[in-house]
Amino acid sequence: MSLQSQTKNMKKLGVLLNQDLGYIFGEREGGPNGAKKEFFSTGRAFLSALGKDLGFSQQDVRVNKAGIAVSGEIYLHGMWSEDNGLSVVLEQDIMGKDCVLYRTISHIKDRKGGSNNFIALKEFQLGDYSGLLKGFLHFKSSALTMMRDAA
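Below the sequence we write its predicted structure tokens.
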């Protein structure tokens, strides 16, 4: 996807995550045309393209649709090398402050990973996709530096 498309998707996700995706009193919200479905389709496309833009050699994008009254989550697990990767999770924070969780991982099925880090919803809504890429790519280069220093 292009930088322009990813920026647009990032802003769209920011708007969606600012809504109550777990709203259970309207047919449209829980139904096939609701905001929750739009969150999953846009989020999956966004994270798939993000993984490609980050240059992962291996990646896995998964969706947890969860149940009513919650947003669910969309996960990206990607590996740059055999033991250096990143996990990115889009979710609706119950407090409405954070929407992106990310952490380093050591293998594609690593569900625990390193320390949790968060991106605030307000920051995500700005749509600075280039800045997001640069921040995430720091994890790739810092691991390479550590490997060089250890050798």
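Residues 3-150 form one domain.
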